[in-house]
Automatic annotation (TrEMBL):
InterPro entries: PhoX, TAT_signal. This is dTDP-glucose 4,6-dehydratase. It holds the Pfam family PhoX. SUPFAM superfamilies: Calcium-dependent phosphotriesterase. Residues 570-607 are annotated as: Disordered. The lineage of its organism: Bacteria, Pseudomonadati, Pseudomonadota, Gammaproteobacteria, Cellvibrionales. Residues 597-607 have a biased composition (Basic and acidic residues). It comes from the Bacteria.
Length: 607
């Protein structure tokens, strides 16, 4: 049959098979440049990476560990450094800034002498100092030349953001007593960011990065913290005596010394990659939880809308609506749009109706009777607020992103093994959901003109992850409109990140397929037409890795992907790794790395 539906004709690549080995895999006719690896120098003088001599000073000038979110921010060839506005309005696809999250560190794979068990409580002070420089974010100028994609060493834009980078705290919770510490009595200034998972880009040329699993950076027993409210709060984010021992050397990571320091993490962070001296800002208006990311939808002269998720079992999907309107090209105005507005949590009802429920102090149950003193409490204890107003507990919301073609918003729900029988709801229909699913949010209005500021929406189940032929109903996948419209390699589990190409095709990155016997990777599919939600397998990771990013250049001819934690399997260590991707050099450990994928004939990816 002739496939004429939108998005279908241009997914004609030769699908790769499910598999599992020590390599990465692409369809015939595609190649990948190895663009950035953990430890690669960002300046012209640092030389080659040597794991034996790596110290904190060296790591602060080098690409960080466990690359996750990727944003390609174009550089205008005719604009000078500092002309941020001109740069970000460019759609140059051959030169830009690659902005990369470094989610977390793994001492047993980074340093000699650790086992997985010993690396939690026994990491040395020197190694912790390296780790604190290896997480955070990298901004790297990259260019496409006849030799392929490469980093521009020594570019004035190149920058590392780490756990020692000074940041401002802005929005309704800034300065609140629960954000004050002995080092910062103002509650408006914090050092660094951690747990940087996914993120987003704004139309005014800034980048948003999420603070997700920050609890693991803090040690101490919440029950030894005098304040009951903070004890409950710290428990909710997994702060335990068994966590990493950073607090032994850096006291702010010990909650028995600085009980408020964790309240200064768990936010979205916004920064300007075009101004290497700019101070990143933690945006308290977007709430505090285990942020996967936030992505922005904007229409001229209307409020800007941002969608995000809290990646934990039974947590919620959120939407932020700015108070002021987005004014194209007026960046002095737009820069503050995410500092003022209203945060909402999503309610997904039986029958496909949905409502965004506002999280406003004094409204409904968000009152002193329920322990909220002010809006700062609503934002700091956002999870509790969302639960009280009646938001729907979800199966670990990961990336939430809007399709630029059909203007619908898609929610990746990665899995939820903790959902018990009887706890199912219409939008999370499976008890013990091991494979995850994808929801489609349809705001009112026609394609391309939907009203994302509306407090009501419709929603659909877009697909259910898992093998469509699985015996176990809770693991059985459902794709597209007709059974059998995908190949044996078209199914996947555990959707995590998502990106859309210019024709509205969805590209899903997974985290967890090895539980089903094959590598994590990328699957691409149409969102409309006959082959809606019928995936094709495009990329496969080396064993032990999950895949993050993905990110297209504006021309759709390059696709960047981040291969995170390669060789991260049981008993794999620096000294005895499962494999040594991507270098395969006996002198080098496995290294998380970013690949730049191109079609050998220079054509559009996927078509
Ligand atoms: Fe860091 Fe939610 O994945
Ligand atoms: Ca993720
Ligand atoms: Ca994404
Ligand atoms: Ca994940």
């Amino acid at each position: 049959a002739k496939r004429t539906a939108q998005g279908v004709q241009n997914l004609s690549f030769a699908e790769i098979p499910h598999g599992l080995d020590f390599k990465h895999h692409l369809p015939d006719g595609y190649s990948a440049d190895l663009l950035l690896r953990w430890g690669d120098s960002l300046d012209a003088f640092a030389g080659a990476f040597s794991p034996d001599t790596l110290d904190a000073g060296e790591q602060s000038r080098r690409f960080g560990y466990n690359n996750d979110f990727l944003a390609f921010m174009p550089l205008d060839p005719d604009a000078a450094p500092g002309e941020g506005n001109r740069h970000h309005l460019s759609n140059n696809s051959n030169r830009g800034l690659l902005c990369v999250n470094h989610e977390y560190t793994q001492p047993h794979l980074m340093f000699s002498g650790y086992t997985e068990a010993s690396s939690n409580r026994g990491t040395s002070h020197a190694h912790i100092a390296v780790e604190q420089q290896a997480c955070g974010h990298s901004i790297v100028e990259i260019e496409h030349t006849v030799e392929g994609w490469q980093a521009v060493l020594g570019s004035p834009y190149n920058r590392r953001i780490s756990l020692t980078t000074e940041m401002a705290i802005v929005g309704d919770a800034a300065g609140d007593q629960r954000l004050q510490t002995s080092e910062d009595p103002t509650g408006k200034k914090v050092l660094g960011t951690v747990g940087n998972c996914a993120g987003g880009k704004t139309p005014w040329g800034t980048v948003l990065i999420a603070e997700e699993g920050f609890g693991g950076a803090f040690q101490g027993d919440p029950d030894n913290v005098a304040d009951e409210v903070e004890a409950r709060n710290h428990h909710a984010f997994g702060i335990e005596p068994e966590n990493r021992n950073w607090g032994d050397y850096d006291r702010r990571f010990d909650i028995t010394v600085e009980p408020n320091e964790p309240n200064r993490f768990g936010w979205m962070v916004e920064f300007d990659p075009y101004d290497p001296k700019s101070t990143p800002r933690k945006l308290t208006g977007l709430g505090r939880f285990e942020h996967e990311g936030f992505t922005v939808v904007s229409k001229p002269n209307a409020p800007v809308v941002a969608y995000g998720g809290d990646d934990d079992e039974h947590q919620f999907v959120y939407r932020f609506v700015s108070k002021k309107n987005y004014l194209p090209r007026n960046n002095a105005h737009n820069r503050d749009l995410l500092t003022e507005g209203t945060l909402y949590a999503g309610q997904f009802r039986e029958g496909g109706g949905g409502t965004w429920l506002p999280l406003i102090f004094g409204r409904g149950p968000l009152t002193p009777q329920n322990g909220f003193r002010n809006q700062a409490d609503v934002l700091i204890d956002c999870r509790r607020a969302a639960k009280l107003v009646g938001a729907t507990p979800m199966d670990r919301p990961e990336d939430v992103e809007t399709n630029p073609v059909n203007d619908c918003t898609y929610v990746m729900l990665t899995k939820n093994k903790k959902r018990k029988a009887g706890q199912e709801n219409a939008a999370n229909p499976r008890a013990r959901n091991t494979t995850g699913h994808v929801l489609e949010i349809v705001p009112p209005g026609r394609n391309g003109q939907r009203d994302h500021t509306s407090d009501t929406f419709r929603w659909n189940t877009f697909l259910l992850g898992g093998n469509p032929n699985a015996e176990e109903p809770a693991e059985r996948g459902a794709y597209g409109q007709q059974p059998g419209n995908i190949s044996p390699h078209g199914w996947f589990a555990n959707p995590d990140n998502v990106a859309f190409d210019a024709t509205g095709n969805m590209w899903i990155a997974t985290d967890g397929c090895e539980d089903f016997g094959f590598h994590d990777g990328l699957w691409a599919m149409a969102t409309e037409g006959e082959l809606r939600a019928a995936p094709k397998h495009f990329f496969g990771c080396p064993e032990g890795a999950e895949i993050c990013g993905p990110e297209f250049t504006p021309d759709g001819k390059t696709l960047f992907v981040a291969v995170q934690h390669p060789a991260d399997v049981d008993n794999s260590t620096f000294d005895n790794p499962r494999h040594r991707w991507p270098d395969n050099d006996p002198g080098l450990p496995p290294r998380p790395s970013v690949l730049a994928i191109r079609r050998d004939d220079g054509g559009t990816i996927g078509s």
